[in-house]
Each structure stands twice: as structure tokens, then as C-alpha cells.
Design brief:
40% of the residues lie in helices and 19% in strands. The protein has helices at residues 2-13, 31-35, 61-72, 78-93, 108-114, 118-130, 153-160, 187-198; strands spanning 46-48, 51-58, 99-103, 133-134, 139-141, 164-166, 175-182, 204-211. It has a six-stranded mixed β-sheet with strand order 1-2-8-7-3-4. Strands 5-6 form a two-stranded antiparallel sheet. α3 packs across α4 (78-93) and α4 crosses α6. The termini are far apart. The relative contact order is 0.17. It binds zinc ion (ZN). Residues 17, 19-20, 23, 30, 32-33 line the site of zinc ion.
């Protein structure tokens, strides 16, 4: 019953802006709501194991609503707008290298439950916009980790230890661009980098759509 109600609401709101619900533009995110998403300065917001980590915006307001909708409320169409936002930011830092884009993988059981990995959707759109290549086979999540936001710094690191596995045969020698939705302490990127480095892969930069901190 609830499912059918959601479908019905989805159908009614399909052509309305998910954010303001009032725009005359028949799109999921109208241009006004899109422009309300602010960019952070174009510089690495932290360094993890010597790799640059860029964060495009702050996890608040429309960016927060977008990520929650995409992640938890089946709003797959929103992937395009997050990819657009990330690519606008990325254009300013990119040195026009050929990147291979790696979305943070989620554990297969979780992906099955959620029916999709939202960062894969963002990665697909991002690659379409920036003409880079998506690689979802190089690194897999092999451990069903707890949600990071519930944990303290030390627990975050432990939670992620040995969470990822690299299949080196899927590496094509390009610079890797790891992408995620939210970067808090950077421990997810850090553990992915650990695993990649163990496999001799060092040419890596990271881009998160958002960070909860303005620093
Ligand atoms: Zn709107």
C-alpha cells in the first residue's frame, strides 16, 4: 500500500521541482534551486595519505536534500544534478588529464536492498558530462561496514579496515578520481587508497560532492 502511494506521489510530482515544488520548469531540480547550491573554494580541503581531497560544497540545504533524496528516497533522477554540480567544480581543478572515475563501492547486500549504488549513478552522469571513463570493477567492498556517521574517528578507521578489495586486472593505468557524496574525516577515501597502494596504484585524487565542515 505504502509502495503504491509512493508511486502515485512520484507520478504526480514527477514533473515538479523536488526542492521548491513550485517552479514552472518541468524538471526534477529547477535552475533557481540548482543555483542555490554554493561551491566551496577550489582547493583541496584536506590531504589523505598525500592525495588531494576536494570537496565541492557544504552538506546542508539543497545539497543535503539532494543527497538524501538520491540515497534514501529513490530519487534516481537527482544523480544528474549532483554530477553536474561536481563536474562544474571539477572543471576548475582538472588539468585535462584522462581520469578513470571510481565511485565508492557499497557492499553487494546493501546495494541489493537499496536496488542501486547512488554513487554509480552519479559516476555515470559525471563521466558523460566530463568525458571521462567510469570504472566500477577495480575496487569492491567486501565487508558490510556500519554507517560511518554513527562512529567516532577511531571506530571509523577500524570499521573500514580491510573493507575493500582491488582487482588489479581491471586497472588501466590512468589517474584515478575517487568520488563520494560526503567526506567527513576522509577515512573512506583513506581505506580505498590503502588498498589501491597495496596493489601498486598511487596516481589518485579524490572528489566529494560535500563535506559537513566549512574549513
Ligand atoms: Zn525549484
Amino acid at each position: 500500500m505504502l509502495k503504491r502511494l509512493t508511486d502515485l506521489l512520484d507520478w504526480i510530482y514527477k514533473k515538479k521541482c523536488y526542492f521548491c515544488k513550485s517552479s514552472k520548469e518541468a524538471v526534477k531540480m529547477c535552475s533557481k534551486c540548482y543555483e542555490e547550491m554554493d561551491f566551496l573554494p577550489v582547493k583541496p580541503s584536506r590531504t589523505v595519505k598525500g592525495k588531494k581531497v576536494y570537496c565541492a560544497g557544504i552538506y546542508s540545504k539543497n545539497l543535503q536534500k539532494l543527497i538524501r533524496g538520491l540515497k534514501y528516497h529513490n530519487q534516481r533522477d537527482l544523480a544528474f544534478y549532483l554530477a553536474q554540480f561536481m563536474s562544474e567544480y571539477f572543471e576548475k581543478i582538472s588539468d585535462k588529464k584522462d581520469y578513470e572515475v571510481i565511485p565508492v563501492p557499497i557492499y553487494p547486500k546493501r546495494e541489493k536492498k537499496r536496488k542501486y549504488n547512488h554513487m554509480n549513478l552519479v559516476g555515470e552522469e559525471f563521466c558523460r558530462i566530463t568525458a571521462n571513463t567510469l570504472n566500477v570493477d577495480l575496487i569492491k567492498r567486501i565487508k558490510d561496514t556500519k554507517p560511518q556517521y554513527k562512529l567516532k574517528r577511531q571506530e571509523r578507521v577500524q570499521n573500514l579496515t580491510n573493507a575493500f578489495k582491488v582487482d588489479k586486472s581491471k586497472y588501466n593505468g590512468k589517474t584515478l578520481l575517487l568520488i563520494d557524496d560526503i567526506c567527513t574525516t576522509g577515512s573512506t577515501f583513506e581505506e580505498m587508497i590503502n588498498e589501491l597502494e597495496k596493489n601498486g596504484i598511487n596516481d589518485i585524487i579524490c572528489l566529494a560532492a560535500t563535506t559537513p565542515f566549512d574549513d
